[in-house]
Specification:
The protein has helices at 2-37, 43-50, 52-55, 123-129, 202-208, 212-243, 251-265, and strands spanning 62-64, 67-69, 82-91, 94-105, 111-119, 136-137, 143-151, 160-161, 175-186, 189-198. The protein contains seven helices and ten strands. The chain has one domain (11-223). It is α+β, with helices and mostly antiparallel strands and 266 residues long.
């Protein structure tokens, strides 16, 4: 009887330890993920790829090459550029509930990319948790940190600190800016997002945002489809006009009849 009870006793002792180790493993993976996100570069997407099995309990993942990313329905539409997590991620007392990926394209002022998290925590608590970052006021309610600038004309080809990040001032031509933003959504909800914006080449974009390569290629493909459809429509309109039977010119006949009637009257 003692021998039968012993394996059960061992199992009852080992099972909680296994669960604790598993929880610690998940916590370590999620902590590393959020820490990598704060750098606002490709490290975040590399971390997603390294621990896909762990992260799939929180959100769906898409993969490309050696990186993974959190897909949204449409990065260019306000009501479709975010997802709510299957279950929240807990990070140092914060509750992270969703992800957002935004792309804004302008004809004259460059491109603007934002990606980051929504939290069920107020601004003060979130800011205090990320207190290792040097948060600076950006607007009356928004804070900014890790502001950097990349000058494409500079031969060093490296990101530099940018102490002149000012709300409402767009990056000058030939430069790209990168920052981390913290802002309230409601009294008890906060958004923390990275941004890369300005005169961005595909090389710079894909180096920092490898997830945008398939997304942007899809955007360009749809844009080309619209252009081709418009060209085809115009071509058909021209062909229809060319195929229409020409109307006889009755102006000359009318003029001749007028002259005949005029002579008769005389």
């Amino acid at each position: 009887m003692l021998l039968k009870k012993l394996p059960l006793l061992i199992y009852s002792l080992v099972t909680p330890c296994m669960a604790l180790a598993q929880n610690n493993s998940v916590e370590t993976a999620t902590d590393k993920l959020i820490d990598s996100f704060l750098t606002c570069d490709a490290q975040f997407f590399q971390q997603l790829a390294k621990n896909q099995t762990t992260f799939k309990q929180f959100f769906d993942l898409a993969t490309i090459d050696n990186v993974a990313y959190i897909p949204v329905e449409n990065v260019q539409k306000k009501d479709k550029n975010s997802v709510v997590f299957k279950e929240p991620i807990h990070y140092k007392g914060l509750t992270i509930t969703g992800y957002q990926n935004i792309f804004i394209e302008t004809p004259f002022y460059g491109q603007y990319y934002y990606w980051g998290f929504t939290l069920n925590d107020n601004l003060d608590k979130t800011k205090q948790t990320f207190n290792k970052l040097n948060w600076m006021p950006y607007t009356s309610k928004t804070y900014v940190a890790n502001t950097q600038i990349y000058d494409r004309t500079n031969k060093t080809n490296d990101w530099q600190a940018n102490p002149y990040a000012i709300d409402g001032v767009i990056p000058r031509q030939g430069t790209v800016e990168k920052s981390l933003y913290l802002e309230p959504i409601t009294n008890n909800q906060t958004r923390i997002v990275c941004s890369i914006q300005g005169d961005i080449t595909k090389e710079i974009l894909y180096t920092n945002r490898p997830d945008m390569k398939p997304i942007y290629e899809n955007i360009e493909a749809k844009r080309q489809e619209k252009i081709n459809a418009l060209k085809l429509k115009k071509q058909k309109e021209v062909e229809q006009q060319q195929n229409q039977p020409s109307q006889p010119n009755t102006d000359n006949k009318i003029n001749e009849n007028d002259k005949i009637m005029e002579r008769k009257s005389k």
